[in-house]
């Protein structure tokens, strides 16, 4: 497959060469320095806007349902779908009527607000909404570019007891009862407090004060270092910090679901996103028992073309691999191959959310969450 980064099995980068400074690195550093002043202006503007909302001078909404905000500091933050899906599963198990209000993000619904229905294409709903619907088939979800309108529409349509606001961390337009902030290893390292356009954050670190708890999303190789960094970066907020990751429960393909070891008997290639680079390759080897013949890495928002599908077919044939393994968000895109990949089985996994205990006192996330939910519900009832 062309226009993607390939890593054959056994390839190891030359780390000695990667440390040598070059003109590209120096130019990048200079550009980054130039972008700091506009990023500070952007962050200031966001703080002023949040203050205006808090003063009641701008349009705000306090939903009637107990409201939970889930999100990260960057638009590309990972872990949001897993956490939202877990909350929906918890609500179903506890008999709490729940709904989700979200932005269509990369989706193109015909109208807004738009109520997600079974069978909607991911081009319509957006990848995140499609994944939530896949993980929680009973999910009731409203998409709208206006979060206030999305929340009001969800309440009219579903009358939920709990309303989850997807990707709405510290959004001043919505008054929430509980805010769950997701931070990645990059957020806690080189990406810390680097606001657009100098970085990927949409607000500066002061917005994290709105969070009631932090979930650090990282793979097994980076989890320890990320949690150590979180302990230092987030100590001043005095809020619980939990590890957040996932394990692979099972794999499902065109006709059935199987355990990972059942795929070990045939060679396979993998198509993964750049954000999966530190997480999934090791999980594939551990789950299946053998490494892929080759891994193709694409950008998280990559839109596959007909040429991409044709190149993937050629490369899979070259490695004599009839199985193509990928992450759920890319499986939705690969499914749109239009027959080009007929004869090749596309497999993706069902994730199982895994929480680590609180860094401060070892409290399990479930224990903390249920106490926080009950406390928020009592406050709602107090006149």
UniProtKB/TrEMBL annotation:
Keyword Transferase: yes
One of the protein's GO biological processes: lipid A biosynthetic process
GO MF annotations, alphabetized: ATP binding; lipid-A 4'-kinase activity
GO CC annotations, alphabetized: membrane
Organism the protein comes from: Solidesulfovibrio fructosivorans JJ]
The entry's keywords: Kinase, Transferase
Protein name: Tetraacyldisaccharide-1-P 4'-kinase
Keyword Cell inner membrane: no
Signal peptide: none
């Amino acid at each position: 497959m062309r226009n993607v980064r390939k890593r054959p099995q056994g390839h190891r980068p030359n780390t000695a060469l990667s440390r040598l400074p070059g003109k590209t690195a120096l130019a990048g550093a200079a550009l980054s320095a130039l972008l700091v002043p506009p990023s500070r202006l952007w962050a200031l503007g966001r703080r002023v806007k949040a203050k205006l909302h808090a003063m009641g001078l701008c349009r705000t909404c306090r939903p009637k349902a107990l409201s939970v905000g889930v999100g990260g500091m960057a638009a590309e933050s990972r872990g949001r779908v897993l956490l939202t899906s877990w909350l929906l599963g918890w609500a179903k198990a506890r008999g709490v009527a729940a709904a989700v209000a979200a932005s269509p993000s990369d989706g193109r619904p015909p109208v807004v607000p738009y109520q997600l229905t079974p069978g909607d294409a991911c081009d319509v709903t957006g990848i995140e909404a499609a994944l939530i619907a896949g993980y929680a088939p009973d999910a009731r979800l409203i998409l709208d570019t206006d979060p206030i309108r999305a929340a009001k529409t969800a309440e009219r349509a579903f009358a939920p007891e709990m309303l989850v606001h997807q990707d709405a961390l510290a959004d001043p337009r919505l008054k929430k009862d509980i805010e769950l902030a997701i931070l990645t290893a990059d957020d806690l390292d080189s990406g810390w407090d680097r606001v657009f356009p100098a970085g990927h954050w949409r607000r500066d670190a002061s917005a994290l004060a709105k969070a009631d708890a932090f979930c650090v999303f990282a793979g097994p190789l980076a989890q320890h270092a990320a949690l150590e960094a979180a302990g230092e970066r987030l100590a001043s907020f005095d809020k619980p910090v939990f590890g957040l990751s996932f394990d692979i429960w099972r794999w499902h393909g065109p006709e059935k679901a199987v355990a990972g070891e059942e795929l070990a008997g045939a060679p396979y290639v993998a198509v993964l996103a750049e954000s999966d680079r530190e997480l999934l390759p090791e999980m594939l080897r551990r789950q299946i028992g053998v490494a892929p013949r080759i891994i193709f890495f694409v950008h998280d928002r990559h839109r596959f073309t007909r040429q991409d599908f044709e190149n993937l077919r050629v490369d899979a044939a070259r490695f004599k691999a009839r199985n193509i393994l990928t992450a759920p968000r890319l499986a939705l895109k690969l499914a749109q191959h239009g027959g080009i990949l007929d004869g090749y089985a596309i497999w993706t996994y069902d994730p199982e959310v895994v929480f680590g205990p609180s860094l401060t006192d070892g409290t399990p996330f479930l224990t903390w969450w249920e106490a926080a939910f009950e406390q928020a519900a009592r406050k709602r009832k107090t006149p």
